[in-house]
Amino acid sequence: MIYIALGGSKLSFQELNQISTNNFIYKCGVAIAITPLIYGAHRCINWYLGEEAEEMIEFAMKEGRSGTEPLSPG
Question: Superkingdom of the source (predicted)?
Answer without folding.
Answer: Bacteria
